[in-house]
Design brief:
Layout lengths: L3 E2 L2 E2 L6 H8 L3 H8 L7 H14 L5 H7 L5 E6 L4 H17 L3 E6 L6 H10 L4 E5 L6 H9 L3 E5 L9 E4 L2 H14 L5 E5 L5 H16 L9 E3 L4 H12 L7 E4 L2 H13 L9 E6 L12 E4 L2 H20 L8 E3 L3 E3 L7 H13 L1
Parallel strand pairs: 3-4, 3-5, 5-6, 6-7, 7-13, 8-9, 8-10, 10-11, 11-12
Antiparallel strand pairs: 1-2, 12-14
Helix pairs in contact: 1-2, 1-3, 5-12, 6-7, 8-9, 10-11
Length: 361
């Protein structure tokens, strides 16, 4: 019989009980989250996913020990400042790993610090393949290392096709173009834009889509209408403050992700501005925060869970083909996005008029 210390395996690997204790829930609830079941509250699911990432719990470790070396293994790397984005990635990945009988390890990398050391260690330990979401998927030295080590990798949200690795993404440029065109169609001419992390390809694609849509409408974008963010809530606060501090502030702000858009709503409310009567705010991704802030965000829905599921499926198929002696070429898949209209947008003049009518009733 295997001895346990507390509820942790003798090997030091965390158990489902460890995850449950960290997330303040039952092991059954953790199991439901891992299996992708719907009957778990959103806040509980998020706690479980955070605990899995923190403890580096491998959900399929028990099945792997039974299957022996025949079971394929993968590592999901993460270094994303948005907990909402990471939660969506985890939910899709854990579910698909179970369906593909793939042992999945969740491993944190410090962006620009130790990701290469982490990948080398995991590859040398026998991990068969990697799932690499943004921003790590834009680290060319990391991608070159994966190629040199001859391990399979699928990139998530890369913004562009990389010739040596498979990738699943959306058309960030066109999505941002479409959102900007919609904002313009409401009657806005002074539109501010909060740029994402400058080191990520998707940030540049979204900025380009915004600028081209404004140009197509004959609208200028002075430097004062652009503010640098880093896909974090805190950076969104600073960027929104810069945009709203102007003598002629924008009537609409389009942020490169939902975290920064939610921060913009908070900054507007601090200044006693009504969203959307005084300011239209739109985001990108449609993560959980988009529908938990008030007003709920109009945003671009990037199907993050579907993207991560497809990435796991791609990787599993490539690993199985490689084990059978085949060498499949990299596959690049672009999934559809959609513009989700909620309560954070309005025509500038009409919104103020509607607000005045409500006050006079």
């Amino acid at each position: 019989m295997t001895k346990r210390t507390g509820n942790r395996r003798q090997s030091g690997q965390p158990t489902i009980s460890d995850v449950a204790r960290e997330a303040h829930c039952s092991p059954m609830t953790v199991s439901r989250v891992i299996n992708g079941e719907d009957n778990v509250r959103a806040e509980t699911r998020e706690r479980v996913l955070e605990a899995i990432a923190k403890l580096k719990y491998t959900p399929n470790s028990a099945a792997r020990s039974l299957a022996g070396a025949s079971q394929l293994s993968a590592a999901l790397l993460y270094s994303n400042p948005s907990a909402n984005y990471l939660s969506e990635i985890l939910m899709g990945s854990l579910e698909q790993a179970r369906l593909n009988n793939l042992s999945l390890l969740v491993e944190r990398c410090e962006y620009g610090v130790d990701e290469e050391a982490v990948v080398r260690r995991l590859a040398e330990s026998g991990i068969d393949g990697f799932i690499v979401p943004s921003p790590l998927c834009d680290e060319q030295p990391l991608l070159d290392m994966l190629r040199r080590l001859r391990v399979r990798a699928v990139l998530i949200g890369a913004g562009r096709a990389e010739p040596h690795h498979s990738a699943v993404m959306i058309d960030d440029y066109q999505a941002a173009y479409d959102m900007t065109a919609y904002i313009i169609s409401l009657g806005h001419k002074r539109v501010g834009f909060i740029i994402g992390n400058p080191h990520q390809t998707a940030s540049g694609q979204r900025l380009a889509g915004f600028l081209d849509a404004m140009a197509a409408a004959g609208l200028e974008v002075p430097e004062t209408m652009l503010a640098q963010g880093f896909f974090t809530y805190r950076s969104g606060i600073a960027a929104a403050q810069k945009l709203l501090d102007q003598t002629e502030p924008p009537t609409a702000i389009f942020a490169s992700n939902d975290d920064m858009a939610a921060a913009t709503v908070a900054m507007a409310q601090r200044r006693h501005l009504d969203v959307p009567a005084d300011l239209t705010v739109c985001g990108f991704d449609d993560t959980a925060i988009a529908s938990t802030v008030w007003p709920e965000l109009t945003t671009i829905r990037q199907p993050i869970q579907d993207i991560s599921r497809k990435a796991l499926e791609l990787l599993a198929n490539e690993l199985k083909a490689a084990r059978a002696g085949r060498s499949p070429k990299p596959t690049h898949i672009t999934l559809d996005y959609s513009l989700v209209k909620r309560q954070s947008h309005a025509a500038p003049g009409l919104a103020r008029g509607a607000a005045r009518k409500r006050l006079t009733k």
